[in-house]
Amino acid sequence: MTIITRRYVLVIVDDYSRYTWVIFLRSKDEAPEEIKTSLEKITVLLQASVIIVRTDNGTKFKNQVLQEYFNSVGISHQASSVRTAQQNGVLERRNRTLVEAARTMLIFSRAPLFLWAEAIHV
């Protein structure tokens, strides 16, 4: 088993099926490229086009690179209002579930907490 040296996690949830993809990032700068790659994979995997992408109002999602990509493939980008977790309710609950499950596994196994990415990855 290799140790994942990632500090951030990008969670993508399909609104229809609630299927979740978890992507580990070294820095937030990796987010736009990972989002583009993931959307292309999801389009092939589901054999359906992505119509709308909903994100929080973070700067990692509101940049020129992603905006140009969304415009080029015909994806509508919707950003939630600032400090309203209620608008991202499904994703917020999924994040909380992942973190709590990872923390529980690490505490139960008496493993160091810096192995959170490995616990989520399992």
UniProtKB/TrEMBL annotation:
Pfam families, alphabetized: rve
PROSITE patterns: INTEGRASE
Keyword terms, alphabetized: DNA integration, DNA recombination, DNA-directed DNA polymerase, Endonuclease, Hydrolase, Magnesium, Metal-binding, Nuclease, Nucleotidyltransferase, RNA-directed DNA polymerase, Transferase
Bilayer-crossing regions: none
Domain spans labelled Integrase catalytic: 1-122
Coiled coil: none
PANTHER family cross-referenced by the UniProt entry: TRANSPOSASE, PUTATIVE-RELATED, TRANSPOSON TY4-P GAG-POL POLYPROTEIN
Name of the protein described by the UniProt record: Ribonuclease H-like domain-containing protein
